Amino acid sequence: MTSPSPPSTASAAAESIHRSLSELTSYSSTDSFDSPRRFTAFASRLQFVLNHHNFLESDSLPPALQTALKGIASDLSRAVETVSSYRQRSKIFVLINCKSLSSSLQQHSSAIASWLALIESSLSDDLPDLRKKISDLSFDMKQSHFTVTENEERVHRTLQREGEGRQTSKAVQSAIILDLARCLGIDSDNYSELINQVKLLKTDLTNSTSVSARRILVSLEKILDNWSVVPGISTLSVDRDFEEEAHISPFKNFLCPLTKEVMKEPVVLESSQTYERTAIEYWFERCLDDGRDPTCPVTGQVLESLVLKPNICLAGAIEEWVNRNIEIQMKGAVEQLSKESVDVEGIERVLDVVYKISEEHPLNRFRVRNAGVIVMILKLLKNCSNSIGTVLRGKVLMALLSMSKDEESKKIMLDEGITRLAIHSLIGSSETEREYAVKLLLEFSSDESYCARIASEKGALVLLSSMAGNLEHPALANLAEEILTRMEGAEDSVKHLAAAGRFEPLLSRLREGPDDIKIEMASIIGGMTLTNNSKEQIARQCAQTLVKLLSKPEGRTSSLQALNNLSGLDENVTILLDCAVLPALVSVLLQDEGASPEWKELAASIIANIVSNPGRWELASIDRKGSLLQSGSVVFNLVRLLFVASSQCQAFILRILYGMASSPQAAESVALHIQNTGDGIKTIIMFLEYPEVEHRNYAFKLTRLLTERFGHDIAQELKQSDKLSLFKEKLLDNESAENEKSDAACILGNLPLSEEEVKTIIEASFVKWIVMTLKKQQRISNGRASRPTSSMAEGLLGLLLHFTRHLDQETVSVVKEHQLMTIFCEQFNFPAKPRVRQLAAIGLKNLSEAGRSFAVADSEPPPPQGFCASLVFMCGRRGSPEPSTCPIHNAPCENSSQLCLLKSNCIRPLADLLHDEETFVQIAAIEALSTLVSDMSNGYKRAMDELEKQGVILAVIELFTEVRPGVLQERALWMIERALRVDGPAHKFSLNQSLVRALVEAFKNGNANAKRHAQDALTNLKQISGVSGKASSQSRPRT
């Protein structure tokens, strides 16, 4: 509100004073606060003085009096505003602002006193009575103090704290209402009047911008909402009607004035009022926090002593009343839970009562237990879990959690299978159900034996681990993590925790525990099914410990089992090798005569896992001398052990030998040691017909590798033992495994077979089977090459190579019938191993050479007979080829001959193969192409023209200019020299500087053959003068 402006004239001031005084004194009897009453008393005295002596009506007043009147008029106007706030605003508003309002009246009273003193000094001496009255009033107003009462001060301070938005307990809220009601002169039970006062405050604050005042309003509204509820001990509503005495209502003195609930621990103050201990203690704390003396909330009495004396008599009466009501409630609960049909609402009320009794009257938990309610609730959860829904399951778990604080109830829950029920609720659809399930498990996990019980439940640790890692629900995650942490301290839980992926308890015991614990932990690792990540984690932390355990006979079995489990991961091989595991394993397998068969099997298995990863173990020492695993003595002992080892150990030894023979670094020495080990090859071959699949599998694999190096020796051994036909039988056996078939094909393809043996083994029907199998595999793979598929293709192509090396008129018909040249060429489109492409190129070479041989034979006419012989001798034979002849063979070639690379469209695929990444494939391709230019007879130019048209010559030149000196360069150089004998290519490539430089380099640094071919090629290019680096003959100076 805007303050009124001071009057401009004395008459206006006088009028304003009369108006203000009339307003102040008119309602003075209704003022309920002391400050406005006192100020209006001063106003009445001032009005009496001014009205009695009428000197304000004088027409001419001294300037001092005029000034004083104007000042009094202004301050009175402002005082009227303040007093109006007391009279017109709500009492709560006045209490909120009582200090500022009192201060305002104090200020105006002092100001008016000063103006009155000015008037008194300006009056003449002939008015002594007036001067005396004005002087007394001035003095009284000057000396007066407008303050708030102690009660108003307390309420004001409390309300100001509420304006700060502080959280308050229910007890403190009740005390605030009692204080406020007493200050307002209202009975604390007069709820409607309290509500009315708050509504008036809300009206007063309609246009207020004070945040604190609005907070006070909101706080009071909430407090009164709570105050309106009349609480008491909860009663169970069941379907049957109780008699009048079925529930005993509490006496009024059972209820705490602050909480309005039945007291649990009643105490008496010095004011003789009884309260709940915790409630009154909260009020005392609030008073002290507010900087005020603690008071009795009901009487408002300031307490000199805060001693709380137990009200023993009242406590006994309340206890008896509570016990009686609990018995009634349990009777109703049993009746409700015994119903055949599930009444969700009734069960919910039962659970609420059980929870409240357990929380508010813990000493009466035994009554709930003895009534059988715990067992009935558990059976409900077991039998009706789906029908009661997730919300009710959450309430069941909440009630059980509260009751689990009773040891006897806890035992009942355990016996009834609470663990499994709680674990099942870990995947409940509501967060509340999951929360109370994990809290219940946490409550029970304080017992180490119960931790083991949790761990043994199927899926428990997996669910808890998943929950612990779920950051979307951090509260649940922390609870689950706490359970798992407790379980880590229980010995019986270690194995289960490890199975769930929590290995730290196990690993810490393995690293730091005594030997018996280490052995036990190693045994657990050895028997577990581990993920790759788990294997790596364990190996990195404990591999060294496990290796050290190998030196202790009592720990050897467990350690070997654990190492065997860990060695199954390729990434762990390096870790194990760094821990020097090989010396201990080799000692157990080959040197320790007292080692049990189980130890030898485990040691052999670990070594087999290690050597299956080439490039890591080859340089690892197996003894102090620095011997290597691939040494002759080790290979010798392994082969010898095959005769005496157990069946399983034999399989692992075959794996070891195969692994070592597969290593690029060790393959040659291992194969040589096997060959030199007496009956080494014979021993390996013996296992080709072993009944156990694993033995045969690795025997075939190892034999395949050995045939690549010692094919002749193995062929001799197979022939002596009459097992050469074994491989063909294996291939044709539909019951045999694909990998064995693949190895059998490769072995037979690698063996050196005589012409007679080829005809015997690889007859026409077998060739048909080979071709059909190749087509089938190419069709099934559909562009994807698996290892067994490419190995089978490699072996089958090797068999076809045997067949194509010894062709005659009879076998050529088989070649044509099955289109072997096409079959070989199709392998280039198959994304197989480079070895397959190499064999296919060699097959084309064989067929191309055979085709040239048959073409030469067919082109030789029979010797002339009789009269024509002389004519032929005289005229000679026709030298120019027929236009219909093949430009490659200079003879007619049928499209289906399967002996001509041109007619079978194989030249361009071979030329493309010159760009292969593998040198041996390039060599095979260029050797196949070389068969096209081996004949320098008539028609050679036509052949070269065709090769240039197919892009072969350019591809060979590009290859020659890029490769290093060696066999490939020499083969390419030979073919280039042949091509440059023809004028067309020689002229075309004479200016190819890259070719010339490469030829010069070969001429300078190549071997004898390379130099000769390079010289001839340069001669054909007419570049021979550039070889020595000297000028040509045309530019040479004359001598």
TrEMBL record:
<dbReference type="GO" id="GO:0016567">
    <property type="term" value="P:protein ubiquitination"/>
</dbReference>
<dbReference type="InterPro" id="IPR003613">
    <property type="entry name" value="Ubox_domain"/>
</dbReference>
<feature type="domain" description="U-box">
    <location>
        <begin position="249"/>
        <end position="328"/>
    </location>
</feature>
<dbReference type="Pfam" id="PF04564">
    <property type="entry name" value="U-box"/>
</dbReference>
<protein>
    <recommendedName>
        <fullName>RING-type E3 ubiquitin transferase</fullName>
        <ecNumber>2.3.2.27</ecNumber>
    </recommendedName>
</protein>
<dbReference type="InterPro" id="IPR013083">
    <property type="entry name" value="Znf_RING/FYVE/PHD"/>
</dbReference>
<keyword id="KW-0677">Repeat</keyword>
<dbReference type="InterPro" id="IPR000225">
    <property type="entry name" value="Armadillo"/>
</dbReference>
<keyword id="KW-0808">Transferase</keyword>
<dbReference type="InterPro" id="IPR045210">
    <property type="entry name" value="RING-Ubox_PUB"/>
</dbReference>
<dbReference type="InterPro" id="IPR011989">
    <property type="entry name" value="ARM-like"/>
</dbReference>
<comment type="pathway">
    <text>Protein modification; protein ubiquitination.</text>
</comment>
<dbReference type="InterPro" id="IPR052608">
    <property type="entry name" value="U-box_domain_protein"/>
</dbReference>
<dbReference type="GO" id="GO:0061630">
    <property type="term" value="F:ubiquitin protein ligase activity"/>
</dbReference>
<dbReference type="InterPro" id="IPR016024">
    <property type="entry name" value="ARM-type_fold"/>
</dbReference>
<keyword id="KW-0833">Ubl conjugation pathway</keyword>
